[in-house]
Amino acid sequence: QVQLVESGGGLVQSGGSLRLSCTASGRTFSSYTVGWFRQTLGKEREFVALISWRGGSTYYADSVKGRFTISRDNAKNTVYLEMNNLKPEDTAVYYCAADDGIVVRSTPIAYDYWGQGTQVTVSS
Q1: Most buried among 24, 78, 93, 121, by the most CB within 10 A?
Q2: At 31, phi and psi to the nearest 5?
Q3: Residues β-bridged to residue 3
Q4: What does the pLDDT profile of the chain (124 residues) look like in tens digits?
Q5: How far apart are CA 105 and CA 111, in angstroms?
Q6: DSSP 33
């Protein structure tokens, strides 16, 4: 079992920055692919970014490419999502999730463990 806790959300103006953190406890975190997803009311949860268990591979949704950066520090059991040049359409609850599968996947259903989410609100 892996327990995930997100932090770092908040209210920011358009063009601003936030850094989200996802800290894990439980089983060895370094063997999991970790993804960030987001969801707004009435919409399906959507993929934002992921980082492979070794940290060598990262993938981003087109909507955040060039603005968001995902990284991990396995020694701290933490994955970060650095979000720059935020836009009002980035407003959502952001979730981190862990997947112990061998194949790196970006679909929410592939992820076994989820955090409780952290709210990000970008004002125009």
Answers
A1: 24
A2: -90, 5
A3: 25
A4: 889 999 999 999 999 999 999 999 877 777 889 999 999 999 999 999 999 977 679 999 999 999 999 999 988 999 999 999 999 999 999 999 999 888 888 999 999 999 999 999 999 9
A5: 8
A6: E
